[in-house]
Amino acid sequence: MQKIFLKRGKDESLRRFHPWIFSGAIHHMSGEPQEGETVEVYTTEGEYIATGHFQIGTIMVRVLTFQQEPIDQPFYERHIAIALDVRKAAGIIATNTDNGLENNTFRLVHGEGDNLPGLVIDIYGKTAVMQAHSVGMHTDRHIIAAALKNVMGDLIENIYYKSETTLPYKAELGQENGFLLGGSTDDIAIENGLRFHVDWLRGQKTGFFVDQRANRQLLEQYAYGRKVLNMFCYTGGFSFYAMRGGATLVHSVDSSQKAIDLTNANVALNFPNDTRHTAYADDAFRFLDHIQTPYDLIILDPPAFAKHKDALRNALKGYIRLNRKAFEIIQPGGILFTFSCSQAVDKDHFRATVFSAAAAAGRNVRILHQLHQPADHPINIYHPEGEYLKGLVLYVE
Ligand code: SAH
């Protein structure tokens, strides 16, 4: 195994179990490791510190373990078994213990949050959708799939691998999406008793935004008798919860026609012939400029405006503009669910942004809930960068 030696003093963050090694921390390497190879990391003095996947870029090693051990199928089995135990403890497998409703949709492995940097596995019914964000995880995909099946047993029958868009382009791996196990065409999964189609093949992320489950559940409790605008609806998650909660009207908006088609299909699946729902393929800002309906429950769940720190200023401006619009149009006594999934925008930034938007619109606003990512998207305490989803539920006087 190739060895990487750190510059003096650059082992500090690793002693606090931070799982990334930046290129600037590396003194020299024993050879020329290939991207994706497993490497061992040593201090300048030659003391072993960690083992991880080597990659080319700013982050050069993503640490898998701080103990000298092989990265093999049993290694992945141990980690996936713990990840499963976490989800069992959180009460979200098969039945959501919070509400007693059927739930076969959850994230089983959340990268660094589950000590498997670069690996995401979402479960949709009997199908696991696996995504590699590093060449190392791509290289190991077959032993990971075998480990996954061993741990999950009868809980899954299919493993779909979807990494076409998540792997570094320059790695030129010729990666393809496809089944590593099984091959079911059943594309319907259940979240809190609601059914939806998952488009593994072409959908964003692994096909559905699993991270809003708990927040959608909360929205349902606010929906009764309200006129709802679900902005950036994607596959309509918030919309069908609003309908079950007794909303009188639900409008879903997304700039992607494909997303709108999926939203319509999902609404039809749960509420056939229900005329309360209409979906619009439109740009959010344009739609908000031409509002006719007196909405009193609005959801704003935009894509990550800031993917990187340097895009932060523009992102904050975007959030202010969007939230200000919502504050301007929402009815008195309205409820606003507003989110940011940009990792670069932290809780305080986001709250300050919504504060500015409220002040600019001159509305009287109370914070009712402060929302975050759910237990199946855990945050490794040594890796605060893993915190990305935040939201506020506001009462607008
Ligand atoms: N709320 C969704 C997830 C939203 S993801 C859920 O619960 O599943 C963000 C969505 O915003 C994507 O579907 C994307 O197509 C859409 N989008 C991006 N830019 C947009 C814009 N300018 N106007 C409207 N929708 C946009």
What are the defining features of this structure?
397 residues, alpha/beta, six-stranded mixed beta sheet, 10 helices, binds S-adenosyl-L-homocysteine
Structure commentary:
By secondary structure, the protein is α/β, with parallel strands linked by helices. It has helices at 12-15, 73-89, 135-139, 141-152, 213-222, 237-244, 257-270, 284-289, 312-329, 347-361, and strands spanning 3-6, 20-22, 26-29, 38-42, 48-54, 59-65, 94-96, 101-103, 105-110, 119-124, 127-132, 158-161, 178-181, 188-191, 194-197, 227-231, 249-254, 277-281, 297-300, 334-340, 365-372, 390-396. A 7-stranded mixed sheet has the order 18-17-16-19-20-22-21, with helices on both faces. A 6-stranded mixed sheet has the order 2-6-5-4-1-3. Helix 7 (257-270) links the parallel strand 17 and strand 18. Helix 5 (213-222) runs parallel beside helix 6. The longest helix is centred in the C-terminal third of the chain and has 18 residues, at 312-329. The protein is globular, with a radius of gyration of 22 Å. It binds S-adenosyl-L-homocysteine (SAH). The site of S-adenosyl-L-homocysteine (SAH) has 17 residues, from helix 6.
